[in-house]
Design goal:
It is built from six helices and seven strands. The chain has 218 residues and is α/β, with parallel strands linked by helices. Helix 1 crosses helix 6. It is globular.
Length: 218
């Protein structure tokens, strides 16, 4: 993979940085609380990263794989069922934040509107939020609902990084074509961080890189 391309795939970090990532996620990672309104947010006294992705993109599986805790983030087969912002503590200095899956085919309009309002408030008002990770299914690339969340992150001035999931399930013949589509989509968004992380929760691909990125944010 040539690194001259726009939005190159993140390189494997150096040994010292990898160790910081290992140590962060080797410690305790615990569920803190689910939040349904801004007044329920925990204090903004830690470095915070959030994970966003359309329903069934593999977000819960990725969080569980990152932390080595199989049941930490709960997956739901019903899109739009979980309407909470879920906070997890990682060590003593980080929050991991699981945003509900978007793409609400089975959710009432009022529920969607309430969630969207909360999401906008959270993204705009969380001063300790260092990066959002936008998860994209490597088999399908960027969809219109992903464009919506990316545009919201642009408007909120929150740096986001694309994380491709389920890399083990994409056909080798489709890999470059999907990457080209993702790169083209990202180029339209000023808040997009200029590297892509390719992951597989099942195979463990990219997890070490993602842990390191989180651990080295300041």
């Amino acid at each position: 993979m040539t690194q001259e391309l726009p939005f190159p795939i993140a390189e494997i970090p150096d040994e010292l940085s990898r160790e910081r990532g290992r140590l962060l996620f080797a410690g305790e990672t615990e569920f803190l609380k689910g939040v349904v309104a801004m007044d329920g947010l925990p204090p903004d006294d830690r470095i915070e990263v959030c994970f966003a992705g359309r329903s069934n993109v593999g977000k819960s599986s990725l969080i569980n794989a990152l932390t080595g805790r199989k049941g930490l983030a709960r997956a739901s087969n019903t899109p739009g069922r979980t309407q909470e912002i879920n906070f997890f503590t990682a060590g003593e200095e980080h929050y991991l934040v699981d945003l509900p899956g978007y793409g609400f085919a089975n959710a009432p309009v009022a529920v969607v509107q309430k969630w969207q309002a909360l999401l906008k408030q959270y993204l705009s008002g969380r001063t300790n939020l260092r990066r959002a990770f936008v998860l994209i299914d490597h088999r399908h690339g960027v969809k219109s609902v992903d464009e919506e969340i990316m545009t919201l992150l642009d408007k909120s001035a929150v740096t986001f990084q694309c994380v491709l999931t389920k890399a083990d399930k994409v056909k080798a013949t489709d890999r470059e074509k999907v990457l080209a589509q993702v790169r083209k989509a990202l180029s339209k968004h000023p808040a997009a961080f200029p590297e892509i992380v390719v992951t597989s929760s099942e195979k463990g691909d990219g997890l070490e890189t993602l842990r390191t990125i989180i651990a080295t944010l300041v």
